[in-house]
Amino acid sequence: MSTEDAIFGAGCFWGVEEAFRGQAGVVETAVGYCGGKTENPTYKDICSGETGHAEVVRVTFDTGQTTYDDLLDVFWNCHNPTMRNRQGPDVGTQYRSVIFFQSEDQEDSARATCEAVAHSGQYEEAIATEISPAATFYMAEDYHQQYMQKNPQAGCSVNFNQ
User: Fold this and answer.
1) For the structural domain made of 3-150, what CATH number should be given?
2) pLDDT score of 149
């Protein structure tokens, strides 16, 4: 099995993780923090809005069963990419829409799909999604991992029932 990682931020990481967990070819998901300046941030740290980190999900996928483009489809459809630094009631830079690419191929695919979404007519507003090189991924606390599985009654503004 050949695997690859992808990192996406699309609002509250609980729902984003759930959107990816059920996809064919996804081997593992983990929620965490990426894109900021603080080393080893905690949830409390990133909630301050001062660390620069986004709540993200790292998706490990089997390249023989699914593609990065398939995962990008999930990303674009699980949230509103025109919302700057927010999704639903969650507000702050930690909830920004972001793709952290890990290769030139991932960057090319992310930019191409962003362009396609921008010109699809689906949204009146401009796409606010940031596309950046992957930075260090810091794993979130254990209680955040697979949160929606552990707490099915929890609310989340991310569309994980695709």
Assistant:
1) 3.30.1060.10
2) 84
